[in-house]
Protein: Type I restriction modification DNA specificity domain-containing protein
Organism: Acidithiobacillus thiooxidans ATCC 19377
Amino acid sequence: MDTMHKFDIAGQDLSVMSDHAGLIRLLTTPPGWGVSVHDIATQPGKRMDAEHYDPVVMGNNMRLKALGVTLVPLSDLADVHLPGIFTRIWAQDTEYGVPYINATDLMSYFVFGVPAQERYLSRASNVKMNSLIIRKEMILITCSGTIGRVFDVPTALDGWAGTHDMVRIIPHQPELKGFLRAYLASDFAQVQILSHTHGGQIDHVTGDQVASCLVPQFDAESILRISKLADQADQMRSGSVLFMNDALSELSEIIDHGG
């Protein structure tokens, strides 16, 4: 016996649609949630975009408050700085410029032992060069494009000029660096930072928004323990980069001498 089919005025087969009604609703109905006026009024910046009140973001805030410890903004624990946008002028070498690195170069450095490309920012560039210089005591966070990647500054890159697309963070107390670096890479901090995402074609967050990230004030023993573990990871990472540099140097020497 032939199956009876019903069609709507657009010619769609309703009998087929009914079998997949759940899937159709999922594909055509965007997720939604409610938010109170009080939550909007008490949020920094009083943002009106829905993503800022995503249940994941709100749930993260509730989890932080449920810890039962004091929460302070990152700016209470560290100097947070983001250089302004500037026009780059390139130089051929260190005689006229400063070694330059961006986030992609940093990722390449930690994986391959060398930056993605060798570049020098001319000292003639119209920018306060000191504001760009990255130092060993800093923590860096990407704030444009791919947001929230957290980096240490290896000793080998101390004194290089860094892109303006990385927020510089200098802990007020050096022993806090490992803890803050670990915390900023955690879901607790990442959800807060990413909730500030804005922009048209390219996503951004500002230095002030990163500085507003709430940090739990755990007991001194816990903070010290986490800092030591993070510092050990930093040392091991730096050590692996040195081994990779040795491997690349050995390879180059063999190639230069024809095997």
Strands lie at 71-73, 78-81, 90-91, 97-101, 120-122, 139-142, 150-152, 161-162, 166-171, 214-216. The chain has a mean pLDDT of 85. The longest strand covers residues 166-171.
